[in-house]
Amino acid sequence: MTSAQDQEATDDFESAGVPDSFGRLWTPYRMAYIKGGQDQVKGEDDCPFCAAPGRTDEEGLIVYRGEHAYALLNLFPYNSGHLLVCPYRHVADYTDLTPEETVEIAQITQKAMTVIRSVSHPHGFNLGMNQGASGGAGIAAHLHQHVVPRWNGDANFFPIIAKTKAIPATLGEVRQQIAEAWD
Known about the structure:
Order of helices and strands: HHHHEEEHEEHH
Oligomer: single chain
Distance between the termini: 60 Å
Strand content: 5-15%
Structural class: alpha+beta
Number of helices: 7
CATH topology: HIT family, subunit A
Helix content: 25-40%
CATH class: Alpha Beta
Radius of gyration: 20 Å
């Protein structure tokens, strides 16, 4: 493409909407996720977060059990050490938590950050709860707080182009390291 063709393409794009400084990476394969199918869990009987506490820590990927909530590794992690903090009770909305559940989820989240820092020395964290399917929750029926360790330069094009995420350790190895460091 010539410089003039590049400018024409840019002009066409800008005339389609208000220009901004964002680059766009189109991912049409994600439409299947957006249109549905991501949240098949409706009740406690088919909820992985209700089932996990009934398994051994190793089988359930659990790193800590509290009175009202627990922490486990995400089965599909964004990064090595990606934890989820869940109430035992099957509840979907943050506003439906009891005060005791709210406090313990916050305490477990803080402790998770401390433990992950001691084990793998991340440069930062992403913390968050996705509320409802439209809010991005893969399992909207059971509230869970994400604790995602981040390192400078850990985001790359692998997940977009190759549909692959490079995770440097197995879930079992990471679970053992975090569980041992929790005490």
